[in-house]
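Per reviewer request, we include the raw input and output of the structure prediction for the construct analysed in the revised manuscript.
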Amino acid sequence: MHVAVFAFPFGCHALSLINLVQKLAMAAQETQFSFFNTEKSNNSIFLSSRTNLPDNIKAYNVADGVLPNHVFSGDPMERVELFIKETPENFKMALDMAVAETGQKISCLITDVFLSFAGSIAENVSIPWIPVWIPVPHSLSTHIYTDLIRQHYASFLSHGCSNSGRDGNDVELEDKTLEIPGLSELHIADLPVEVLPRDAQETLFSCMLGQISNMVPQVDTLVMNFYEELYPEPLLNDFKSKFLNLLNVGFFSLSMPPSIEDATGCLSWLDSQKAKMVAYISFGTVVNIPHGEIEELAEALEVSRIPFLWSLRDNIRDCLPNGFLERTIMHGKVVPWAPQTQVLAHSSIGVFMTHCGANSVYESIANGVPMICRPFFADNKLNARLIVDIWRIGVRIDGGVFTKTGVTKSLDLILKNEQGRIIWSRIQVLKEIVSKASAPGGHATQDFKTLVEKITSE
C-alpha cells in the first residue's frame, strides 16, 4: 500500500499532520507514506521532528510559487496566495515523481481539508480520499455553512446593525449569534474574515476555503484532530449526519513522544519554581504582536512579580522595554523557543497566556492548564469564545488587547482568586476526559484503529 499525504504548509497545519502520519506509519509498517509539502515547511517540521522518522515515510517537496529574487511586500498572506496559485499542479507533479520513484501506485490520499481539490485527484484515479481537519471542529462548521452565515450577516446589516467598530471589531454584531447546528453560542464577530462577505475581491485563500462546503460533505470518512467527548451534542449530531465515518482520533500534537531537548534551559528553570505559580507565555510562530502591546505585557509582568516563562522570537525581543530582562531576571525567563508540550506538563505552570491557536489550546487542555486569551486572527477568536464562554476554562484579556492593567487583572484572577481555582477544576475535568479517550479501549484509540484499517485495506 502507498498512501500519499498532502500538507497545507502554513501555521501549524503541516506539523500537526506529520504527527498523525508518524503514528500511522508506526501502526502500519508495511505501508509506504509519501508526504508532500513545500521545501520551506518540510525543512522546518523535519528539523524540529521529535523522533527519527519511520523508514516508511518519505518527504517530497512541492513548488511554493515563490520565484527566485522575489521581493515580498510585507503582506502576511502573500506566501499563501503564491502557493495557492501553484495548486493543484504542484502536487500532481510531485505525486507522479513519487509513484515513479517507488514503483508503487497511490492506494489512498490523505490531505488537509484546506486542499479540497485533492478530492478530484483521488476520484480521477479511483482511490479513497480521506480529508483531515486540524483546527477545532466548530471552525469546520463555519466553512460548511458559509453561505448560510453570509445570509445571516446580510440580514443583520439590513436591520441596521453596524459592521464597523473599534480596532476593526464589529461592535453592534458582537452579540449576534448564529442559528446553525453547534454554533448557536458563537458570535458573528468571532468568525474568521474569510467566512464573512467581503467588500473587496475574494482572495485565492478565501476561494480555497469556499470549496470546503462543496467537497467535504461528499466524503465517506473525515478525520478530526479532536475527541468525540468534547463536542457539543448538536455539532456532533450534525457532523454524524453528514459523514458516514467521523473519526475523532485525538489531538495530533500529542501523538508523538515529547522532545527531550531543552536547549534554552526552560525545564530546569521551571524545576526551581513553586507549583502552579508560573505564567507561560507564547503566541506561536506566526503572530506579530503590536509593539505597544509587548511593552504593556512586559510592564505587567515586571510589576506583578509573578514568575513567568516567555517564549519570544528573537525578531520581536528588541521591542521589550529597556532594562526589562535585567529587572526581571529573578522571577522571569525569556527564551526564543520552548518545548511547549513539556512546559505545559510541568507542575509549576499555573496559566498559559496564548493567542488561542488550535494546537496551543489542545496542549493546554491535555495538560490541565487554564488559559488567558489574546486572539489575533484566523480561528483565534472562535477558539477564545470556546475557552471562555463554552468550556469556561480561561479568561479573555479585557478590551481584547494587552494593557498593563488588563494583564495584571487576568494573572491575579487565575493564579490568586477563587474564580481561578474554579477554572482550574473545570479544565482538570477536560484533561481527564482526554486521558480516558486516549487510553487503550478509549474512543479516540478505537477511531485511530479504524483509520489504520481503512488505509491498509485493499
